[in-house]
Amino acid sequence: MSVLDLIGSTPVLQLNRMVSHRALRGRVFLKLEYLNPGHSKKDRVALEIIREARFDGSLALGQTVVELTSGNTGTGLAIVCGAFGHPFIAVMSRGNSMERARMMEALGATVELVDQAPDGTSGQVSGADLALVEIRVRQLVDKFDAFRADQFSLPGSVHAHEFYTGPELWAQCGGQVDAFVDFVGSAGSFTGVMRALRKVRSDVRGYVVEPAVAAVLSGAQARSTYHRIQGGGYAMTELPLLDRSLVDGYLAVDDDTVIRTTRLLARLEGVFGGFSTGANVAAALNLLEESDEPISIAALACDSGLKYMSTDLY
User: Where are the domains positioned within the chain?
Assistant: First the structure.
């Protein structure tokens, strides 16, 4: 057995106390993806991208791997590349929490930090910041003749959740899922999980979760490109992996609600999640409140709060 065998098969928790706290009817199921070895759902993505690339020959034995990351995919790739014997270079904006850079380095990755755009704010990564990271990634791919583990375009980002996360979630919830909500970064988990759920029940509803100030996927104008929900909401109007045929609606959440929900989740349910976990739970509770009848909503606890101890999340 290797560390790769420990990726996936994460448990599901029913958030009874969170639902009762809001005096709501219905159920919220939270799949605890932060219990993967790298403490996020992106371990699955890293494993599937590398496994598929090695299988189809686009990644040669011992070839260097490079990828843009907010920290979670990079951590997963550090683990997976280490197990398969590939050098890995993670490229990350300085706007992300530094715990993630330290964790990737501890796991054997080389980490390149890219300065934020001139109007950047520490702890908040915008589309402009991401564009600067992308420039550096392309330079490194050319320099090292590296394989680009592009989480924003490679099908492995979707397959990881379509073939594994989604079916696990359906079985663990006893086939009782009416809706799935997901805060999107690459949109791989939204599309993958929803494809899996729709295969077994065609009327499962899918909701994309976005920051209130940058809900551009819903068609709204971005009021700001900066928010505190790290790992997504980059104000990109189109995402290559987002299958809009699976989207039944868009849910916006603001920073304060996300932080308050994340803290309450830790106190009431013992789930120590990050910003995006709080975003998903806040959106699920709001959707439950708006429903005319009790429904069952599923979501992912995307990563661990341990990755944000240098921020004021807790």
Answer: 3-41+155-308, 42-148
